[in-house]
Design a protein that fits this description.
There is one protein chain. The protein has 184 residues and is an alpha+beta fold. It has six helices and nine strands. A five-stranded mixed β-sheet has the order 5-3-4-6-9. A hairpin with a 2-residue loop joins strand 3 and strand 4. The chain is globular and about 50 Å long. The chain starts with 10 loop residues before the first strand and ends in a 6-residue tail after the last strand.
Amino acid sequence: MRAPIGSFDLARPAPDCLAELVPPVAAALRALAGELPVERIVYVDTDPAVADTAAFVEHYGRDLLDRSANCVVVAARRGGGTSLAACLVPSAARADVNGVVRRHLGARKVSFAPMDTAVELTGMEYGGITPLGLPAGWPLLVDPAVVDMPYCLVGSGSRRGKLIAPGGLFARLPGAEVIEGLAG
């Protein structure tokens, strides 16, 4: 199989790679089968040493910067409590955490969640967090530019490998909300 974007040596339908994916991502693919076209999600094997965006696009092609998105976990504080959410924005942009995200979540303060918290609660590796398989009940805020991508490359839940899916699929994930101006 050939990946719909990029030049990768190994590309396979993600549902055929469940054993290679972290448990929450594999479970999400199983649960979403029949509801979403998960067979259109492609798993590509990549070098974990270049998982971070800048190194990844330098190694695999600068054109992927405009065809990929980053999923970041944020901590929203209001009153005495903290809640978590994820934001999916194009890799060339940043989530407007202190403006759009804070207002949307009705928080007094929003910051990026500590790495240990994000890793522990998602069951994913830092640098590979993906919108597929996030904890139940977490809001997933998605920038419209991601939804408009014919295909979008995101993390796979680990630093090894990436997922490529139609951008519109991310707007249909559990808890997903498309938020104008999310990417600042």
